[in-house]
Amino acid sequence: MVQKAKILLVDDRPENLLALEAILSALDQTLVRASSGEEALKALLTDDFAVILLDVQMPGMDGFETAAHIKRRERTRDIPIIFLTAINHGPHHTFRGYAAGAVDYISKPFDPWVLRAKVSVFVELYMKNCQLREQAALLRLQLEGGGKAEGGEARESAGLLAELSARLAAVEEQAEALSKQLGDESTDAAAVATAAHLERKLTGLRRALDALEPGSSGGQTAVN
Fold first, then answer.
1. 189-194: long-range contacts (C-beta < 8 A, 24 or more apart)?
2. Burial class (CB in 10 A: 0-12, 13-18, 19+), 223
3. Which of 62, 80, 92, 211 keeps 20 to 30 A from 135, CA to CA?
4. Which secondary-structure segment (H or E) carries 7?
5. Over the stretch 124-167, which tens digit does the pLDDT of each residue have?
């Protein structure tokens, strides 16, 4: 069963959180509420999120300050942040959002379909990265057991290798389709760059897996 991605919704107004939930419910992912920057940072201590929707104007710790804390933490620095704001002070205000680490900056009222489409891109990238980590973990187990298997263990290892190759091929196909979709639709540069990074990791994993094939001379290939 594929685990659902978690999306963090941060806004001090309950009606805004309710509206976001209504818009994003069609994605069928886990939506987590936070009514302040402090509450958001607390949620990020224990859970992994695919993307964060962060209101700029909040009492106490505002969106910019919250984003700064998120980007300083090693565990959370790579989580995409989409800023939502009801005010527009021009290019300087928008630039401050991007400088704080946002991948996008959307003014209210926003188009629900556009917001849902943007969030879905980052959810899909997150799911592909989760699959990649799973394949890498299985591959490391195979590498650690390399050269020690005999007889039935060797046949079991060969079966695991074939299963890994098939599962990796499925992820490669999905990642290629996603990259093509992002390129065709001229999506945000951050999403395109993330997809390219994912494809590079998949290429390295494929090389390491190929090195384990019988007769290969690269059995000691490392996976980073």
1. 190/80, 190/103, 190/104, 191/80, 191/103, 191/121, 191/122, 191/125, 194/80, 194/122, 194/125
2. middle
3. 80
4. strand 6-10
5. 888 888 877 777 777 777 666 654 545 555 565 566 667 777 77
Sheet with 81-85: list strands edge to edge.
Answer: 30-34, 6-10, 51-55, 81-85, 104-107
**pTM of the full structure:** 0.66
Residue closest to 80 by CA, chosen among 129, 22, 123, 115: 123
How many Cβ atoms from other residues are within 10 Å of residue 22's Cβ? 10
- Give the pairing type, strands 6-10 and 51-55: parallel
Residue 203 to residues 30, 91, 163: CA-CA distances in angstroms? Answer: 30, 39, 17
Give Cα separations from 22 to 9, 15, 16, 25 (angstroms).
12, 11, 10, 5
Q: What one-character DSSP code corresponds to residue 94?
A: H
Residue (of 219, 172, 220) closest to 200 by Cα position: 172
Beta bridge partners, 106, equal 84
